[in-house]
Amino acid sequence: MPKTPLRGNALILQSGGPTAVINQSLAGVMSAAGDYTDVISTVFGAVHGLHGLLYENFIDLSAESPLAWQDIANTPGAALGSARLKPKRSDLDRVFEVFFAHNIKFVFYNGGNDSAEAAQLIREEANARSYEIQILHIPKTIDNDLMETDHCPGYGSVARVVSHIIAGDDLDNRSFYNGVKINVCMGRHAGWIAAATALAKRGVLDCNDPSICAPHLVYLPEVPFQETKFLDDVQRCYDKIGRATIVVAEGIADHLSAKGASFTGEKDEFGNAQLSGTSGLGDHLSSLVKKNLKVKAELGKLRVRADTWGYLQRSLPGMPSPTDQAEAFWVGAMAVRYMMQGESDKMVTLLRVKAPGGGYRCETGLCDLALVAQKTKLMPPAMVNAQGNGVTEDFFEYVMPLASFLPTVRTLRGHGVSRKLPEYHRPE
Amino acid sequence: MPKTPLRGNALILQSGGPTAVINQSLAGVMSAAGDYTDVISTVFGAVHGLHGLLYENFIDLSAESPLAWQDIANTPGAALGSARLKPKRSDLDRVFEVFFAHNIKFVFYNGGNDSAEAAQLIREEANARSYEIQILHIPKTIDNDLMETDHCPGYGSVARVVSHIIAGDDLDNRSFYNGVKINVCMGRHAGWIAAATALAKRGVLDCNDPSICAPHLVYLPEVPFQETKFLDDVQRCYDKIGRATIVVAEGIADHLSAKGASFTGEKDEFGNAQLSGTSGLGDHLSSLVKKNLKVKAELGKLRVRADTWGYLQRSLPGMPSPTDQAEAFWVGAMAVRYMMQGESDKMVTLLRVKAPGGGYRCETGLCDLALVAQKTKLMPPAMVNAQGNGVTEDFFEYVMPLASFLPTVRTLRGHGVSRKLPEYHRPE
Questions:
Q1: What is the DSSP letter of A422?
Q2: What is the pLDDT of residues B371-389, one digit of tens each?
């Protein structure tokens, strides 16, 4: 039996790293809120999340042109502005002054596990103050590391982007000989993004043996990173196919830092060290390989390169996953509908259900904020291969529908031509 | 009056850095060669360019499945394998032994100004030996720096990719406050790729003032890079809009190296220093900004990040320019047709012509190899703005049809909400 919702204005905050589909959720909220103007008078947006809330910097989202929302939804980056700010105890008086001044009765907090924690803190304070307010958390993170939801809006699109990058990167790498290419992708604690690059293995049209398709080696933060093991893996791959196209999650820098190396930058208010926008890890692994790999002399000089993909993983326009777009919109719209059923203090979740035909289908649900706040969903062991350098079939089944597209490529069969001359020994 | 072509087998080589459409040219050659099987008996591919030629490592391209070519054409990376190898005088005996052994009468050299030089060397040697052979060069380079052609196949696709990256990158950067984001793109001597990011200015649906659209500052190798000027530019941009999204071509590292800094890596056989796959330049500029930018205290901590895009610029599947794809195929096909007219010792060019309706149109032409070999087409002064940190309208007119697509994005209009409370001073 549905509870009765409050009446008043709504506030939406975007928090943490943006995604390619974060504005889909914003558009979803606006679309659904338009059906309840008798209950939700105005939807305000906090400019730069908690920053906008504290400094009373709001915009009136109800005043945006209704015709603009589809384009806004398709635009990456946080349209409202995001923040990496944690509410302090001393901020709470101000938070509730602002809520009261603007008659805020509904809060939509769109973010990751840090913002779930912030939402929870505001909830507890509202109870202590007997301020009536409904708060729902809308999941968003490319990291895909929120508990209780099958996956997070934002992840499917980054999965599509990184799998395309690695498919192309291996084609680029194999264009030369003796290439070891190291790619550093995002993912501090969880390896979901690095793992998603494995999708590139499935789009190679002329490949009968996925084991030789890139990525050849994938290193996840879930598996303790050991330099000797890494070098053995690279050597084995190189000996087998003459090259290696490698993906490492940036989070493995922490494994190396624990042993004395230093790659990390600034820290935010949640204590998270900056790992992106700097490239020490790639350079470090690159120089390890250069120093240690035993190269076949006849193939010429070793070619080692490292790229750190940086922010484009989460911000590239033009390559979202349509499934991800639809789901991000949907969790925003459902947050409004749940709110109108009187729900509060929960996060909207995506639950994968058995579709009749065996295909992919999700429903939405709700879970307690406390189950999400400050928690991180790592990749389960069943999705990591026994060697700790790749993924299993379980992971492919999980990720394929989320990314929507495989990067499809085809190379030459390469029908050999008989040699007619003696071997060539090139003069020095 | 057309000359008579020779008769025999053809050899195609891919050379230098691959592109997203290099295999379109290969497919174009194969498509057209299929019309002249009485003249061109078999088309061989040299595996890894000159390497395959010297070591007699050929594949029989005529034996590939005809149905596979469309997928191969759409696949980035050099399907044949590329090389960065320069023929030495001492290699030439071997080159002609191989030509003779396989009855090679037609050579298609697909590459940049380095391979035009290699093609020219082989030509001169053929004349000296009275070995009858026709050689045509098919242009290919993301750098867009070949003389005599309006533009180079490969460039339009990289223009599309980098403009999308920068459109998304600025949305990501503006999601936070006080963000200075530095992006290092490819381009050693010429700034064509860096310049192409300016396309992102034209796809912002809600922007009446392109001067505030990203990229805000673009640094080209054509303009001597000065750190003080750079810092002044960044400060002015930051003072005006509270952030800066910046693009620098990797080639400006040379300007800094000349003053004692060190960013470059290995050198190839053409003497080109490795600039990609390492990120010293971004880190250097990043630390310059961190040390020198005067930040408005009320906006909080400065956030400086640097990304070096690396190889994905030229290898990303799924985001080619359709114009670039069609033209890359076309120059390959036309190379065969010119060959069949008895042409040799030339490069196929793209010539922009006035289309009747004023739209974009190209024709193909031919130019002497000597006009291309070892030469670099820089951006003309008319395409660089007076401040030396951006592009002019002339450049937009030039580049828009090549990329085929603008990255279209839309942000919120942001209707302000009146404040009801006194200013907040956040406790430390």
A1: P
A2: 999 999 999 999 999 999 9
Question: CB-based contact (8 Å) between B243 and chain A?
Answer: no
Of A148, A211, A159, A152, the residue nearest A393 (C-alpha): A211
Residue B35 in contact with residue B3, Cβ under 8 Å? no
Please state, in angstroms and rounded to a whole number, the distance separating the CA atoms of residues B282 and A343.
Answer: 48
The answer to whether residue B65 neighbours chain A at the CB level (below 8 Å) is: yes
Cβ–Cβ below 8 Å for A411 and B176: no
Whether A46 has a pLDDT exceeding 80, the answer reads: yes
Residues within 8 A of B (CB atoms), A 147-166 only: 164-165
Tokens 């939804």: give the residue: A73
Helices A155-174, A322-340: axis angle to 10 degrees equals 170
By DSSP bridging, strand A58-60 and strand A40-46 are: antiparallel
Render pLDDT for B104-140 as a digit per residue (tens, 0 to 9): 999 999 999 999 999 999 999 999 999 999 999 999 9
User: Does residue B83 sit at the A interface (CB-CB below 8 Å)?
Assistant: yes
Chain B residues whose beta carbon lies within 8 Å of the beta carbon of residue A283: 278-279
Q: In this structure, are strands A362-368 and A346-352 parallel, antiparallel, or unpaired?
A: antiparallel
Contact residues, chain B, for A408 at CB < 8 Å? 71, 74, 317
| DSSP run (H or E) holding A249 | strand A244-249
What value does the mean pLDDT take over residues B306-318? 95
Please give the Cα distance from B266 to B264 (Å, whole number).
Answer: 7
Residue of B nearest to A95 (CA): B424
Q: pTM for the full model?
A: 0.95
The C-alpha angle with vertex B304 and arms to B279 and B218, in degrees rounded to 5, equals 70
DSSP state of A90: G
The rounded distance, in Å, linking the Cα atoms of A185 and A144 is 14
Residues of B forming the active site? 143
What DSSP string runs through B18-83? --SSHHHHHHHHHHHHTT-TTTEEEEEEETTTHHHHHTT-EEEGGGS-GGGHHHHHTS-S-TT---
Q: Using alpha carbons, list the distances in angstroms from residue B108 to B111, B115, B335, B344, B362.
A: 10, 11, 8, 10, 21
In a 10 Å sphere around its CB, with 0-12 CB exposed, 13-18 middle and 19+ buried, how is residue B37 labelled?
Answer: exposed
Q: What is the pLDDT of residue B267?
A: 52
Among B319, B325, B333, CA closest to B26: B333
On whether the CB atoms of residues A362 and A352 are closer than 8 A, the answer is yes
Distance from CA of A1 to the nearest CA of B (A): 36
Our CA angle for A133, A100, A8, nearest 5°, is: 55
Q: Is the CB of residue B297 less than 8 Å away from at least one CB of chain A? A: no
Stretch B314-339: mean pLDDT, rounded?
97
Question: CA-CA distance, A426 to A286, in Å (whole number)?
Answer: 29
Q: What are the CA-CA distances from residue B271 to residues A166, B15, B84, B86, B114 (Å)?
A: 29, 15, 10, 10, 11
Q: Report which of A84, A78, A82 is spatially closest to residue A23, judged by C-alpha positions.
A: A78
Chain B residues in contact with A405 (beta carbon < 8 A): 318
Tell me the mean pLDDT in the region B220-229. 96
